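Hey, resending since the last one bounced:
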Amino acid sequence: MLSEFVTTNIVFLVRLLNGIVTISIFPFLYRMHVRNKKRFYLLWGVGFLLYGINILFRAIVNLWAEDYTSSLLWISFVSYMLGNISIIVGIGDLVERTRVALLSLLLLPLVPFITYILSGPVLIGWSISLSPYLLICVGLIFIKRKFPAALDLFIIGWVFLFLINLAQPLSMIAPIYVDILAIIGKIVIFKGMTNPRFSFLADDMKRFLVSGTAEIYPQSVHEHILLVQLNPGHREEELEWISHRVKNNAKEGTRTILVVLYDLITPSNLREWGMKEEDLYLVRVLPRSEQKIQTFEDYAAVMSDSLLQLEILISEIISYSQERKTRIDFVVYTLSWMIHTHGWESVYSLLTSKISNIKNSDVQFYGFYYPETHPTEEITKFERLADRILSSSDEI
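The structure tokens again:
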């Protein structure tokens, strides 16, 4: 009897922890929604909030609420279904298929109906609880096959939850392990959702990379890593170099992506030098700023000052270049600021890790730098990586 009492209380505590972990995902996803204005994070956050409330109610029902079991179970069921509906709609919103996701909700009664036809009312409750997991897993696998989204951890986590909930009524897992494994599954899902690669590039950038018509045939890429030496006090020369490069690229159908640290070049600077917003994609690197772009909105993005984000950006650009057979100039203004901020070893490690991928693509990397601001032995290492070293006064 004592052993049963202890087991019941342990199961309650673990389920309580499961509910708390599930609910605690909500504030993280809500902050991501506030930061990047992507609605699917809000929908998922609300979904996990309701899902967690469902778990807490079930924990209370199993321990204390014999007199109120019926009403509490109904509240638990409603919050569970609404939470899953919110998550399913969020998955549709991720790939701009919200209407399809809403229509797919009509499939939710299909699994219980088939179960009822095959086995009568015996397994109807089991199939109702499993149908949202099944729909989510099928939807994610379809998106993974159809769209270039980083969904691996997301899919693994949801399939894991589906298998746990499938095994539980078959008595293949002890109740205490169900919630422990469920916590692990949700941590995997959360890790997948917050992976910067998951939704880093906006659809605007995808449209930018596939748009544009060449007026002249572009030359093939032979030099992939180029460094551009700058001299302090020659800002107009630097802007003129970038402007000239952007305009020539636009004629050739080469896409220009300009990564600017700390607003050293602003959207107004680009307009002053006659650069059209449709001719380049501006990535503003700001130190964890909440600032949102007011101009160049369809051809720009704000990125936190993180080498991980930059690494992801380079990988995505290489991937799109290979998929679309598009030549891309990737310009960093300035490499010197990046080195001073993150240390030369970290930046050097990032570049060396990407060199082989860049050289096997139609991407040219341009790094602007001020040689005299760096120790000679350090900057020499970067110069050795370059296929060519240019000056901002050079015509290319």
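The two ends are 84 Å apart (CA to CA).

Sorry for the duplicate.
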